[in-house]
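Workshop exercise sheet. Pairs work together: one partner reads the sequence aloud, the other fills in the structure field after running the prediction. Swap roles for the next sheet.
Pair: D.N. / O.F.
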Amino acid sequence: MNTVYIVFGIILLLLFILRMRRSSPEQLSKPAVPQGECCGKHLVCEKQKLAEARLRSARYFDDEELDRFKGRSSDGYDDKEVEEFRYVLYTMRQEEVREWVECLEARDVELPDQLKEEAFCMMNETL
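Structure field:
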């Protein structure tokens, strides 16, 4: 049985050596991905690609006016602003709440602290 593993290992080694000889030194030194683009093999790149994809696919729930709160802290809203979020929250279908919250996050709009519990309760009721 050990000889089978040894033969298999030798075959793999020979295939690797043949492949390396066929590759020119120029091909080995050139990056496979154009400079400045993500190769997709690193966690940082993947996170960035996912974030960009979320932004591209961000669905609006007739709430474009909430974009003016981009970058605002979740504890920095006054009562009138919280009511704007609450109006949108209660005018959508319950099964859309999770997607709406994700969409807000993708747009860098934080849900007001006063509404988080309400939104999470609505999300949990749909499970």
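Discussion prompt: The CA atoms of residues 8 and 117 lie 59 Å apart. What would you look at next?
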